[in-house]
Amino acid sequence: MTTKSNGHVLTWVMGFLAAISVILIATVSVLDLVLSDSIRTNENQVALNIADAGANYYLWHLSHSGADFQDGNTGGVPIVGGEFNGFFGPYEHEYKDDNSIIIGKYTLYIRPKSVGSTVAVVRVIGETDNGKFRRTLEVEIGAPSFASYGVVGDVALWFGNTEAANGPTHSNVGIRMDGPNVGDVTSSNATYIPPSSLGGNGTTVRPGVWCNAGIDCASRNSTRNNGSWRYPVPAVDFNAITGELCGIKKTAFLSNASTSALAASPTACNNVSASRTNAYIPRNMAAFSTTRGYLIELNSNGRYNLYSVANEVYNYTSNTNYTFQWATALTETLIQSNIVIPASGVIFVEDNVWIRTNPVFSGRVTVASGRLASATEQTSVIIADDIKYSTKNGQDAIGIIAENNIIVAPYAPPRPNDPVSSYPFEIDGALIAKDGSVRFTQSYLGRDVPYWSDPNKKLLYYGSIASRNVWTWLVSGGDSDGFLHNDTTYDYNLLFAPPPSFPITSTYDILKWREILVTP
Questions:
Q1: Residue-level pLDDT at 443
Q2: Where are the alpha helices (DSSP H) in 439-484?
Q3: Which of 407, 347, 405, 346 is nearest to 379 (CA)?
C-alpha cells in the first residue's frame, strides 16, 4: 500500500512540476517578449528624440545664421533626383547622452522653401548607434517677415467703415478699425491718443484697437471683435530694416565675382562699387537727385530690362497733363535688356528706382533701393505702371524695399479719359517703406491728382504693405490724392514664402512639424 501510494504521489508531483515548468516557460517568454518590445519601443523613441534634437539644432543654427541652408558649408549644390531632390546635404552629426556617450546620429537634408526664402524645409533622420532604429521628421523652420502682415505701420492707422482690413494688420501705435477685418488686428499699445487726421481728436485716449463709426461698434469694442483684436503685443522693429538692407546689399555683392570681395569688408554697407552686375546696380550719378535713377522692367520671362532715368517730367500745369504715361513722363535710356535675375533673387540699387512689369512678371525677386553710405540721401521707389504677377498661387513674388518712400506716380494708372476696360490698375507685391510712406502720390509732384469716381475704375492691390509713416490709397474728398475705390487683398502665400531675403520681424521658430513614416 505504501509503495503504490508513493507512486501516485510521484506521478502527481511530476505532473505538477511539468505544469509549473510550462507556466514558467510561458511567463519567461512573455516577459522576454515584453522586455524586447519595451527595448524596441525605447530604442524607437530614442531615434525619434535624436531626430527631434536635429530639428532643434537647426532651429538654433538658423537663429544665428539666418538663411543658411547648407549647415555652415558653402559651395554645395542641391541633390538632383530621388527622395531628396532639391535638398542640400547630407550633413551628419553625432548625438551624445548626458554622459557624453555617443548613442546615435542625425542626418540633415535642407532646402529653402522658395528662392531666397526665410523658411527652411529640413528633413532629419534620427538613428540609434546600432543602426537598427530610424525615425524621420520633416520640419519647416522660419522667421515671420514683414510680408506676414497685410498692413503694418509704425504710425497710427485708420480703416474707414467702407474699408476692410484683409490679412493680419498691425500698428506700433494704435488702430481705429471701423471696417470689417479678416485676420488679426493688433496694436503695440494698450491705449493711445489718435490724432484728428487718423480718427481721433488729439486729446481722447482710446484702446489700442477700437471702432467708432462702423457696424455694431459697441459690441465690437466690448468683445475685442471676438478675439481678433489684440493689444498690447510686441512692436515691429522698423529700425532693423537698415541692417536687413545691408544684408541684401551683401547678398547682391556676393552674387558676382567682380563684387564679392566687397561683401567681406568691414564697411560692406557703405561700400559703393562702380561695377554693375545683374544683382548690383551702382549710383546713376555721384550727386543725388530725386528725379534721377533707374527704371526696372520685370519681364514675363523672369528677366528684367534696365534703363537709366536722366529726368522725370514733373512740371505739369494742369490735370490734362496726367494723360502722360511712364514712357513720356521719364527721360530714360536703355542700358540692357533681358538681364538674368541672380540665383539669390535679389537686386540692390544704389539709387532711386522706377518699376513696372512688362506686362506681367514670372518669378521671385526682391528689388531694394538705398544709399546706405549717406544718411541724408535717401532713395525712393516709384511705381511707374502696373505691377502684376503672372500667377497668384505663390509661384510668383515681388518684393520692393525703399529706403524712404514707395510712391505710385500720377502717370502710373490708366489715363483719366481711358475706357473702363483699361482698369483695374493693379499692383501685386510686398512693399516696405523703411523711413517713409507707401502712398498714392500725395505731395509727390506738389499737386492733386484727379480721382476716378466710377466704381469700375479702381485700384486692385494684392500683396503686403509695411510703412513707417502714413499709408493711404484713398482720396480724402474733392479733387484729391488717390483712388476713391480699391480692393486691397493680402497675399497669404507670402506668410511662409516671402520674397527673397525679405526682412524678418522676429526670431526663428518651428512652423511645421511632422513625422514621415517610411517602410523599413
A1: 43
A2: none
A3: 405
User: Which of 436, 420, 311, 315 lies closest to 369, judged by CA?
Assistant: 436
Write down the pLDDT at residue 315: 41
Amino acid at 367: V
Main-chain dihedrals φ then ψ at residue 43, nearest 5 degrees: -65, -40
- Residue 495 CA neighbour count, 13 Å, CB half: 12
Torsional sign, CA 3, 5, 11, 13: negative
Q: Is 4 helix (H, G, I), strand (E, B) or coil?
A: helix
Phi first, then psi: give them for residue 312, nearest 5 degrees.
-115, 130
Q: CB within 8 A of 388, min separation 6: which ones? A: 357, 359, 360, 361, 426, 428
Q: Would you say residue 468 has pLDDT above 70?
A: yes
Share of the chain above pLDDT 90, in %: 51
Closest to 501 measured CA to CA, from 361, 428, 401, 433: 401
- Given a cut of 80, is residue 416 above it in pLDDT? no
Residue type, 47: A
Phi, psi dihedral angles at 493 (to 5 degrees): -65, -25
pLDDT, mean of residues 462-476: 80
Cα separation, 54 vs 70, whole angstroms: 14
Report d(CA 32, CA 26) in Å as an integer: 10
Q: How far apart are CA 461 and CA 473, in angstroms?
A: 10
Phi, psi at residue 168, to the nearest 5°?
-55, 135
Reference 112, options 68, 56, 63, 54; nearest CA is: 68
pLDDT at 324: 58
Residue 480: pLDDT band with limits 50, 70, 90: low
Neighbour tally for 154: CB within 10 Å: 21
Q: Are 355 and 368 in contact (CB under 8 A)?
A: no
* CA angle, 184 then 190 then 193, to 5°: 105
Task: Give residue for cell 496694436.
Answer: 187
Give CA–CA dist 298/450, Å, rounded. Answer: 28
What's the pLDDT at 188? Answer: 97
Q: Confidence band (pLDDT; 50, 70, 90) for 453?
A: low
pLDDT digit string, tens, across residues 40-87: 667 889 999 999 999 999 999 988 887 788 998 877 889 999 889 999
Q: Which of 473, 260, 288 is nearest to 369 (CA)?
A: 288
Q: How far apart are CA 108 and CA 105, in angstroms?
A: 10
SS3 171: strand
Q: Are 233 and 506 in contact (CB under 8 A)?
A: no
